[in-house]
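Crash report, auto-generated. Payload:
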Amino acid sequence: MLKRAFAWLDERFQLAGLIEFAKKKSVPVYRGSLWYYFGGVSLFLFIIQVLTGILLLFYYKADAGSAYESVHFLTSKVAFGWLIRSIHSWSANLMVLAVFIHMFSVFFTKGFRKPRELSWYSGMILLGLSLAFGFSGYLLPWNELAFFATKVGTEIVGVLPLIGKPMLVLLRGGEDVTGATLSRFFGFHVALFPGLFTVILSLHLLIIQRQGISEPESWKRLKESEKRTMPFFPNFAYRDLILWLIVLNVLAVLAVFFPWEIGKKADPFAPAPAGIRPEWYFMFMFQTLKFIPSKVLLIDGELLGILLFGIGGALWFFVPAWDAKTAKGERARLLSYLGIGVVAYIIVLTILGYALS
Amino acid sequence: MDNRMNLVRLIFYFVALETFCLAAPTPKWQQLDSSSSEKKVDQCISCHRDQEDKPALAYLNDVHYKKGISCADCHGGDRFAEEQDAGMNPAKGYIGKPKITDIPQMCGRCHGNTERMKGFGSSLPTTMVKEYLGSVHGEKLSTGDTDIAQCVTCHGIHNIKSVKDPSSPVYPTNIPKLCASCHGNAAYMKKYNPSLPVDQYQKYLTSVHGKLNARGDAKVATCVSCHNAHEIISSKFPKSSVYPLNVPETCNRCHGDGTYMKAYHIPTDQFEKYKASVHGKTLLEKKDVSAPACNSCHGNHGAAPPGVASISNVCGTCHSLNADLFSQSPHKTAFEKKNLPQCETCHGNHGVQPVSVAMLGVGKQAVCARCHSSNDKSKGFLVAAAMRSLTDSLMQEQDRARVALDEAERKGMEVEQAKFALKDVRQALIESQTTAHAADLEKFKAVVEKGMEIATNSKTEGEAAIHEYYFRRIGLGVATLIISLLTLTLYLKLKTKERMEQ
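Recovered output after restart:
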């Protein structure tokens, strides 16, 4: 039966060629092989996000008057609603973490070098979209913490010269964070971002399939006899699947033992509560802005911080373009040290952000 | 003979007159001017008296005249000048009739100066003018309103008497009528506050205070006893002595003074009882001005103790539902027959305490048991016992629901709505306490059953949440086990495959 079905499809789509191609795909086996799996984990978590997000959509109402109530109803009255919401929230956080690890692993293994520049650029866009997913989704339950965090977050955008104010109005759907902001964020979160993400993710995966998995320079320098590989299908795929199942288990434990709280309903007229903070992945930037004095050499401190992050982010994004050493196949230790510095900075500032709040 | 007798009489009268004149104190206006050895005469009063000017004649009986205060002390000018032009010369400070708006300051020159008042041998307080200027009257005067009451409106102009003089308009028995001369005039009061009643005086006449005052009792409360004489402030302002929060203290100034009240033979512990009561605590401790003060039950201007027949009307002003239900109950007729005050019989008066479940039923603390004893096994006894039993059942169910919901909440389960619903049980309990006034078991049962249904539902939700909590953990255990087994199977398969490949 299966053979007949395959023959029917093969006749039309020439699948045998694809299978031959897949059979030839191999993954280098070396000390850092573990990092290869984080792309797959990110993909798995994205799939979970899509599935749980669709289920949440059945009950969620994107309206300032009923958003909180709909989430409350979902978690307290709908069968397994609490589980779906909790998995969606935890998986979102784990996905951002996985994407960050994936990005840094590619950076440190210099996986962005020629000819994989587009793979890097598309991956960086996917990272940006993952953060945008997190930022827009944070507001949707319309609770107190999310409301004020969104207010603070969008205010930061507003300090940019010239484009700041129009961007703030564009994001908020007006001068303030209101029901219009909620509708807008909902639109971004469930339509615009998933659409963009799917297109860019497809491109990202297509590039990887076309170019194969990046091999580290040190591995490439080995003699052919010393180069160990494993077939992508089924060995690497099996390992991927095992890791996905472990992640699923972790997700289930987190969702049951640490259900995502709904908090208090947002009251736009209430004063901002103490302890307003963004999601953990924005904490290093938030804390940096808090550390920068209000004026630095006549420049607004917040603006300076945003500009520095903007410049830093742009340099990071365009690393394949300016890193000459890696492009020539040379060891770029300085770049690695820079990467370590950035990782250390993010970790320290994030810890400080939580410790001081 | 008659002529001789007449002459003797004439001589006698002359001697008597001389003796009287020598014995009488010399008026101040005839006394020596300190700056001169000559005996100077106050020409103002001398002239105007001779001309029989009414103000001058009236002033001869004024308390100020007797203290040696001259016309010129208020009107200015030179009191000793013999010529009118010289005496009433503006250059010498003559102002003629003082401006109405200047009167308080003018009176205050002496009445606001303790040293000067001591010089006149007066011990009157010297804060009056300051108090007046901060009063509702003084504030209006400062805006230039010359129709508003100021010093002379109440005390008179040239015939001012001591407040202790019964002929003084500000003598206690004259005060109500004096205040009513403006406050009882609807046309006049409309100018200032159209919503302010103008029947205070009429009400006062019906009050215990008013009746005693009309009989000449100068000790009894008049308008100024509560509103103050000079520092009269609108009852809307917290500083006012008749602001709701201050009313109990104001009444207590007299009613709490055992010595002062001795002649009236009434208790003086009302304030102490009131302070400890639910009303007193709400008003004085929680500062809730909607809580009743003395005047809420006794009336203010028409203050009188409510009679037995009117108590339920008085309490019913606020507790209207309770009063309605009581009037439908068999207790109404029974209380009337026994001449028992309706609400007061069970709740007390000044010391009324918060209601508790203990008041209901046939236990030791139950008020029902004061009349319904177990010996007679009357219907009232049985109804009271049944009501208490129903209340206890509802409270127990409420406790069970609360325990279940608290436990569920501690376990991190979402039971907010059920907890909120539990508030309706409390509402049902309060409603049942109100319904108890009807002494109708069926009505009471209907209210309790409504609460019981909510309590049971809340309890069920709490228990379901606890069950769900354990279900989630068991579910997680099963799911984790399945996923782990699947992971292990895949791992073993992979290892087997890789071993075979080697």
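Post-recovery validation: Chain B touches chain A through 21 residues (CB under 8 Å).
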